Every structure is written in structure tokens, then in C-alpha cells.
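WARN no homologs supplied; continuing
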Amino acid sequence: MRPRRAAGRNEQLVRVLQLLSDLARRGGCDLYELAARYGTTTRTIRRDLDAIAGAGIPLKREAGEGSRLRWSLDLDASRARELAAIASAQRDPES
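OK structure emitted
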């Protein structure tokens, strides 16, 4: 299921919150998966990841298939766990 697209200036914020939830999944995601999921470019996803890291949210990169890197939240950090929970709640407000 593809995430709902937000209109206008909130689009990046909504995408970044949804990215936090995706990055919390076991095994993480690569740039191409994320770009396809959100209907954007890998460059946009890189900017989003830079914004997440710039906000002090710990990310880690690990080797994936071939030369692709897989990005994930550093769930060893308690702040990352809290933010993943917030992002999940934002994605599914009824739970």
C-alpha cells in the first residue's frame, strides 16, 4: 500500500515521519525502495535522510544486496525507539 501524499509544504514533513517508521523495520531499506515507495527520486530520499540525521536522530548504514546500502534507525539509541513509536502512531492514528 502506497502512503497518502500530502499537499504543498507539508509533503516533506509527512514523508519524513513515514520514513522514520520504514527505517525502524528490521533490516532497514535502501534508497531505491524508499524512492519507489514514496514516488520520488533517490536524491530526495537522501535529502530526507540528511534532515533526519541533522535533527539528531541516529541512523546507520549497512551493506545490502550488491553495492546498495540499507538505511535504518539505530535502535540501540533510546531516542530512535521513541521516534519510531511516534512515527508509527502518525501512520496509523486509530491504534
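The mean pLDDT is 80.
OK
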